[in-house]
Amino acid sequence: MRLLQQIHGLRGTVRIPADKSISHRSIMFGAIAEGTTTIQNFLRAEDCLSTLHAFQQLGVEIEEEEEVIKIHGRGSHSFVQPTAPIDMGNSGTTSRLLMGILAGQPFTTTLFGDASLSKRPMGRVMEPLREMGADLQGNENDQYLPISVTGVRSLSPIRYNMPVASAQVKSALLFAALQAEGTSVIVEKERSRNHTEEMIRQFGGWITVEDKTIMVTGPQKLTGQQITVPGDISSAAFFLAAGLLVPESQLLLKNVGVNPTRTGILDVLEEMGAAITQTNHNEQNQSADLSVKTSRLKKAMIGGEITPRLIDELPILALVATQAEGITIIKDAEELKVKETNRIDAVAEELQKMGAKIKATADGLIIHGPTPLHGAKVSSRGDHRIGMMLQVAALIADGPCELEGAEAVSISYPAFFDDLAELVSGGEAHG
Predict the structure, then answer these.
(1) Dihedral over alpha carbons 290, 197, 19, 264 (to 10 degrees)
(2) Which residues are tagged catalytic?
(3) What is the greatest pairwise CA distance in the chain?
(4) What's the CATH superfamily of 11-18+230-430?
(5) What pLDDT digit, counting tens, does each position of 244-267 carry?
(6) For residue 8, what pLDDT is reported?
(7) What's the pTM value of the predicted model, to 2 decimals?
(8) Which of 271, 261, 338 is nearest to 305 (CA)?
């Protein structure tokens, strides 16, 4: 598809689509809790619908109304064995977290996914769950989907030092720990997003977090809740970048989630000189409105403990760095290699096509700026975040851009191109 261009002046208000991570987890917690959970502002994107349909296959009654989703939970021991394998689509979150829940179910479930998901390694989740007593078998005895999970009703607790910083692995283990007989201790390599920990508390569970050490004693009963999902900062990031890079721009992003474990991107952009302000803070929802305007930016060093707090935003940060003064270095981001695509290589190679001075390293990127970008034929490589990043790049490029695989964007933000088109014309966008 031909990408939008805008030489100057993006203006308007964007209502950011709901947070993907919280949408997934709200279904999961509603399913394992007892009583009704109502979810407002659920993200109806393909990945989150994969989670919703999975629990329907496990016998959970879920009502989909226009404004709310109602889950009639009967506790984690009310699931029934599905009559057919469950399709994960392209969703790594659904696959990994569901394994943790299924580990405590006394039956066998097979999970499969699309071609891209079937290349993403699942061993890092499978190994600790096996230690807890579940039996997980991958394709050809390997760590790739399709995977069969045979759970046990009485999982053993685990003490586990995580080898990688991964919110997905941690969350899978926490879901298993809630069902285990005794106290599990999980020690993070670096602190990662804490939505699962927060939601355990929200649903009436008990969890202790001290720095990087997390303790959960199972089995626990959770109670249905009312949830309003805030906007996703990973989706907001593309508009933040567009507002910073397109000359004479001023944007207001409504109801963006600002959970501190997810706001690494705001910290880095502010360090680079970005004019971003927060208003209308909502403590309970951990959300705020963000306003952004065109800014003169300088280089940044991105690595260490901040990396897990902005792992999903690194592709768009790399683009921002192409327009910043000096050499930006991104490191400690090996995790990007096992996303929907190898995002380190994808970012470097696609932006090079547009004239960026950017080089992939073993664990990140080196980016020289500021560098003018030109039009080119580029590809999302089937990855939603790469597709959206390239559209923002096209806004500031000299000459037309063609994007192959634009449909991938619907994984997290189906209305992205429409919302951007509204801003290009100076209107209001509703994610």
Answers:
(1) 40
(2) 312
(3) 62
(4) Enolpyruvate transferase domain (3.65.10.10)
(5) 999 999 999 999 999 988 899 999
(6) 72
(7) 0.83
(8) 261
